[in-house]
Amino acid sequence: MSEPLRILQVGAGGMGRAWLRTLSQNPSVELVGLVDLDRATARAAADEHGYAGVPVAATLAELAERTGAQAVVDVTIPTAHPKVSTEALRLGLPVLCEKPLAESVRECLGMVAAAEASGQLLMVSQSRRYFRTVAAFGRQLAELGPVGTLSCEFFKGPHFGGFRERMAEPLLVDMAIHQFDLARKLIGAEPVSVYCESYNPPWSWYDGNAAANAVFTFEGGARFTFTGSWCAPGHETSWNGRWRASTAAGTAVWDGDNAPEAERDSGESVAAELGDEPQEIAGSLAEFVGAVRGGGVPQSEVHANVVSVAMVEAAVRSAATGSVVRIADVVTEAHAEAVATIQDDVLRPVLESWPSALKTVGLS
Does the global pTM surpass 0.85? Predict the structure, then answer.
């Protein structure tokens, strides 16, 4: 247990390099192999980050056994997550997968089934849960009492180029899952339904809808409002967004970067207690290692994380139909679709064994 956890990383692109830097800074892990479809890219990335002696390969199977790997970090593109993470689980390796878990709830449920069938941990790196200022914001809300209204404003003007500027719903699909997932953490309840409108401002450099407004209803009646745009240059918000939470006892605000502020109805301030825990993907990695070593359930374990993906899918569906969409309906329909379309002899029986997909992902 005192030895570093032996990690295989799959994916050596831009985000893969960020993970290589993070792995190198954590003494509790050891990178024992790097996998990428482009071996030259993998070799260059490994060498650049001080891993000249680490083997590289084009497939996970080439390295899994001979390196003595004990876990996998999946930093591939979202379309590859189901294949890569499922393969790792079948090899008996717990997986830390970059967000989003998959591109559809149907695929996510297949990955839940793979985790159950293998008995291995599958955790999603929802890295924005791990900001120290988020933790302080959450502690303030715990003092103030149940959240009635939570809002997030997100306005940025990035010129990514590439696939994001070609997507039909770039903001909702590629970015908003961070804020949607964080709303679940801050409210401390699960979403029930959403009404969303998405659109593309006339000056937008995106092909698809780069702006959106969404209102989620949560269990207990709380509302979460998201207003955002990816084509909003000038006075930009933090990448975390700008947050405000209202409770019966007062209000807390967070600008996304600095320490949050909170005030009781009496006018008294609530202190922001900042810890020293690891942040962002370093925080994800630390919790993953702790769960693998200690057997606990991390906050973004695969079953629970499906709900965050369902929030995105529901918002996109609402924007397309102009109607309120229930999160439970998205999950239930995705389960029926998964049972009908996933032919894998191991995964299908697991999917069919669930009395309720909603109960499986923690929605009932």
Answer: yes
